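note to self: the first set is below, dont mix up w the second
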Amino acid sequence: MMGMMAGQVIIQALVLAAILHLVARHEADFSFQKVAMVMAGIILGQVLVLALLQDKPVWLQLVAQFVVSAAILGKFCWTTPLKSALVILI
């Protein structure tokens, strides 16, 4: 079970690093170690948002997940809010 979760984080971190490289190549920090930790934080943030908003409408959950993910990405990978939003949308 833990191996599957670690594998999921690694695969998603590779995808996120590739997207960061394409979108924010000149300003983002997309080293694999940092992106893997950021991806783990994004997954944890999404789980917490879903736990806190489980009785709320789905659109509110999606907006909250988007905002939390973009904020984490912008804070730790040094991207602008617009590019963070673009990376999350992709």
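second set (the one i keep forgetting abt)
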Amino acid sequence: MCSSDLSIEAPAGLIAPGGANLVDSALRDAAFPMRSVTIDIEETALCTPDGLAAAERLRARGWGVGLRCAENCPLPLGSRSRSLFSEVLAETPADLSPALGLADPDLRPLTRRIRAAAAAGIATTALGVKSPAHAGLLAALGFERGAGPGYPV
């Protein structure tokens, strides 16, 4: 039995009919403990009723569901989404600078998303952390964790 946490990207067939059942069966067959696995799903795949339904089936079976943010963050973090996601993941902004943390956070979809997720108690993870200084800037924007060649946030 696996004892460490694992995040995996959602397979391509997840949204297809029966896809969530296949993923659930495969994880159970591999003897992963519930809540130790987070399945990261691209936001664009969730902008359909079938996409959200597949994610809800996985979450209802006990698996974590991560939202991999699209650049424009089209999916609102309403009550349905807040109960669905265990983590929000986002690529680091290309224009990341200390001034970005001081700018009006409501002007950018990503900063609105990160603040809304944090307020809802959803873990926020920055992808592509390059260095400790980069991690510090990301933490100032509201990210709690990081992944990448640099140090974690």
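remember for set 2: The chain has a mean pLDDT of 84.
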